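Quick one, tokens below. Sequence please?
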């Protein structure tokens, strides 16, 4: 069984967050073939600096919430757990609209 690595490049968008969700959820559905999905903190820089996030530590609900995160939240701040997002969701939306 092999692990997977996910990183994005370019501007962060809600579509990229949804794509990250899709990658992680699909890998979990095929756990007989794919081990852990690691995400690179700050994209490919995470791979180069060995700064990886073990997505298996995130709950299914947290991963699913990526589909609804404001653009830039996950990949710009990937070291921040989704629990913080849910607890501060209205404030994050306000900040995201002001950017």
């Amino acid at each position: 069984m092999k692990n997977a690595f996910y990183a994005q490049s370019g501007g962060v968008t809600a579509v990229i967050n949804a794509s990250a969700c899709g990658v992680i959820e699909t890998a979990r559905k095929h756990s007989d073939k794919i081990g852990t999905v690691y995400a690179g903190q700050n994209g490919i820089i995470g791979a180069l600096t060995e700064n990886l996030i073990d997505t298996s530590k995130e709950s299914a609900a947290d991963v699913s919430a990526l589909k609804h995160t404001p653009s830039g939240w996950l990949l710009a701040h990937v070291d921040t757990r989704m629990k913080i997002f849910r607890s501060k969701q209205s404030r994050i939306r306000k900040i995201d609209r002001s950017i």
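The domain at 2-98 is CATH 3.40.50.450 (Rossmann fold). The helical segments are 14-29, 44-48, 60-65, 73-76, 82-87, 89-98.
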